[in-house]
Amino acid sequence: MTDSKPLTGGGLLFNVVEQHGVNHVFGYPGGAIMPIYDALYDSNVQHFLCRHEQGAAFSAVGYARASGKIGVCMATSGPGATNLITGLADALADSIPLIAITGQVPTAAMGSDAFQETDIFGLSLACTKHSFQVNHVDELEKVLHQAFEIALEGRQGPVLVDIPKDVQMAAVEQNFKSAAPLKNKVKLPLADISKALDLLTNAKQPILYVGGGVGMANAIEEVRAFARETGIPSVSTLKGLGALDATDENYLGMLGMHGTRAANLAVHDCDLLIAVGARFDDRVTGKLDQFAPDAKVIHFDIDTAEINKRREADAPILGDLKENLPLLTMSLNITEWQANIQKMKADCAWRYDHPGDSIFAPAVLKEVSDLMPKNTCVTTDVGQHQMWAAQHMVFDEPSNFLTSGSMGTMGFGLPAAIGAQISRPHDTVITVSGDGSIMMNIQELATIKRYQIPVKVLLIDNAKLGMVRQWQDLFFEGRLSETDLADNPDFCMLARSFDIKAKQITQKSEVTDAINEMLDHDGPYFLQVKIDAKDNVWPLVPPNSANNEMMESA
Amino acid sequence: MNNYTLIIMTDDKQVVLERILQVTRYRGFLIDGITASVNNTNNIATIELLVSSDRPITLLIDQINKLVDIKSVKVDNNATQLSNA
C-alpha cells in the first residue's frame, strides 16, 4: 500500500535521515508537523515519543554524545519549537552535532500571527550553529544534506531546519538521489609547529590541559600517546574527562573551580601549558590573569575563534588533532617536575573517611564507579552531584560521561540517559541526578516506561538546591533564599507509578547492597540516596580568585 | 572605544544580515553604520559595517567568519583611519 504513495517532503526527510546513518529520532507531534509524522508512519526510522520537546532535544544530545552519530529531534511549530531551544543552546555550547526539525505553519499563513506560529527561524540565530527555513519542496533535499554536513563539519553543533506544513505535504518531483553531496571542506591556516616544538623542548614544567575537543576529534589515542611518550603531567576539563588514561601516574584529574588541588596547583606552577581541544572557560581558569601566570601557551583547536579569545597563544595550532598531535609527540626529560607532580598528587589524594552514619555522596559515587561494568555510560544533571561525579568517578572515554558542561542545564541527565541507552542498548546507562534537577524533566520517566528503557537513576537527594545553598552559606551570609526542597514528592512512589523499581537508602551500611541491586536489575531502576543537606563540594575556587586560592572547608 | 570598518562578502542568503547583526551585538560591538548591496550576477552581497568597541576587532572578525554563508571579512584600514581621525 505504502509503495503507491508519492514521495512527499515529509517522506524525503526520513530518507535523508536514514542516508546519514541515523535510525532513531526523538520528538513530539503537533498540528504543523503532522505531515512529517504521517510520513514517519511508513518510515524505517524508529521514533521515540518523549513527553516534552526539551526531553526530545536532550535525548537526541545524549544519543549523539554516547554514539558519535548525529542526534535528531523533531517538534511542531510555536511552543513545540520554543521548547527545543534550551536543548539547542546546550548543544551549541557543548559543540554537539544535532539536527532539529520543526514544523511551521503553511507558507501562506507565515507572518500572520497564525495559531501556533512563532518565528523559530529568528529565534534559532543565537542558539544554533546554522539554521534553515525551507520555503519550497525543491530545496528540501539539498538543505537537509547541508544540515547534516554543517552539524558535523569542523567544530560540531546544532542545526535547525524549519519546514512549513505545505512543504512537508508537497510531492517531491525530482528523483530521490541516494548519494550525499560532496563535502566542501574549509582549509584551515597552517599551524605554528616549529614554534611549538621550540617551546616544548625548552619547557621544564609543562602541563597538558585536555578538553572536550579531544573526544569529538576522535583523538583519544593520539592524546594518550602524547601524554605517555612526552611524560607531561596532565589535567582535564569537565568535558575532557575520559580522554586521558586515569591510571597514568602523571594524570592529576579535573582542574578548575571544583578541580583537584593537585591539578590546580600544577597548572598554576607550570611554565608551558599545552591546551588540547580546550577553551580556557571561566570555570576552568578562575581569575583569568592569574591562570598559569608564568606559562607560555600552545593551543590546539579546530575553531579559529577560540585562539586568543581568552588567553593569548604563543603557538596556535589550528586543525585536526589526529594529524597535529603526533607532530609534537617526542620524549622529554622532565623527571624532576614529574617527581614533584607525583608527590603533589599523593599529598592531595581524595579521602572517603567520613564520620557518622549518614551517606557520603563522594564515597557512593566512587563505589558505583568501581562496581559498574566496563563501558557504562554515566550522565549527570547539574549541581553538587555533578561535581561529585566528575571528581570521584572514573571514565575510559568521554562518550561514557555525558554532562551539560558549558550551559550547565538542569534537566539534562534523565533524557540524555534515555538517548544514550537507545544508541547503546547493550551498555549499562546510569544517570546521576539531584533532587532539584530530576524534577526539571521528570516527565521522561514516562518515556522510560513506554519503551522499557533500562536506565538506572541514581538520585543524590539532600532536599535542597544544593550548589546554590552551598554558595548562599559561603558567600551570601547563609541567607537561604528559595533553595529548600523539603516538600519534594515521594520519589520512590513517583518512580513506581511509572512501573520503575525503586528503593530509598539513608545509611552508609545500605550503600553497597543497594548499588549492586541497582546494577544487577534488568530493567529501569530508581535509587534514592538521602544525604546530609549540609555536605559541600570541596575543593572550591571562590569567585574572582586564582585557582591556587582554593577553599577546602567552610 | 575604537572604531572599525568591516567589509564583509557573503552569499546572498536569507537572514544573513540578521546573523551578522546578532553576532556583532552579542560579542560586544556597537553598530555605528551599515551599507549593503547585492551583485545580482553572482548573488554575492557586500556589507560595509561600521562598529566600535573596546574589544579587539579580531574577536568579531573570527566570529563573523564562522557564520556559514560568509565568504570573507576584512578590516578596511583606510576607512578605519578616517573614522578615528
Question: How are the SSEs placed, and which strands pair?
Answer:
The complex is a heterodimer of chains A (554) and B (85).
Chain A: H1 9-19, E1 24-27, H2 34-40, E2 46-49, H3 53-67, E3 71-75, H4 79-93, E4 98-104, H5 120-123, E5 130-133, H6 137-152, E6 158-164, H7 165-169, H8 193-202, E7 206-210, H9 213-216, H10 220-230, E8 234-236, E9 251-254, H11 261-269, E10 272-276, H12 282-285, E11 296-301, E12 315-318, H13 321-324, H14 335-347, H15 361-371, E13 377-380, H16 384-392, E14 401-402, H17 413-423, E15 429-434, H18 445-451, E16 456-461, H19 466-475, H20 491-496, E17 501-505, H21 511-520, E18 525-530
Parallel strand pairs in A: 1-2, 1-3, 3-4, 4-6, 5-6, 7-8, 7-10, 8-9, 10-11, 11-12, 13-14, 13-15, 15-16, 16-18, 17-18
Helix pairs in contact in A: 1-2, 1-6, 3-4, 3-17, 11-14, 15-16, 15-21
Chain B: E1 2-11, H1 16-26, E2 30-39, E3 44-53, H2 57-66, E4 70-75, H3 77-84
Antiparallel strand pairs in B: 1-3, 1-4, 2-3
